[in-house]
Amino acid sequence: MRRDTLTVRARYVVPVEGAPIADACLTIQGPRVGWLGPAADRRHDLDLGNVAILPGFVNAHTHLELSPLADGPDGTGSWPEDEIDWLRRVIAQRRSGSDESLRQAAERNLAATIRSGTTFVADSTTAGMSWPAIAAAPIRAVVFAEVIGLRRERGLHTDAAAWEWLASVRPENQIAACARVGLSPHAPYSTAGWLYHKAVASGLPLSTHLAEMPEELRLLAYHDGPMRRFLEDIGAWDD
Q1: Which residue of 19, 191, 198, 226 sits 20 to 30 Å from the alpha carbon of 81, by its own alpha carbon?
Q2: Is 83 helix (H, G, I), strand (E, B) or coil?
Q3: What pTM was computed for the model?
């Protein structure tokens, strides 16, 4: 048997497709799964005992640099289902944090993600804030630089920061990190149309928040409602 090959036995192995296999073996060849099937069909190097081996989880949308919000009014960690109030709290927390605190949050949340058995993430981040942690971790990823802004000045600032980071990540860096880079226009309620067009023209992987909440749908249909008042309050509205 090749030295970079390991066959393990477990009570169950769960394929990506198909039913779980009881009393099964899985062969790892370098970075890949080379074989899986009944234990009777192959000798094993290691018996893991009463465990189930599952495929690595995929988290298709993360914001690793964000920390959990503070407990709700009743101290339980829950808040009323008010999306606008939630947005206000997210923005307030984001503005109160330093770049270093965001990087630390990304490292902490990525470590928890890996411990959970996740092997692939798609992370939206501020100008590559989470990239150093992801590039150094045993995980595959697409890292999306977020662009945001209805007002032109804000859009120009976030767009420039995103492209400055994208230019710093060479193709060989992406190969070494098992990660790709992309762009994330934040959402139709927060991002000018020209930013979406520029992102699409880049040819990079894209991600966006779409139809997150009823208030967003009302804003897009009628240009009014709680979402408009919220954007006006934080100085982000642009007619």
Answers
A1: 191
A2: helix
A3: 0.84
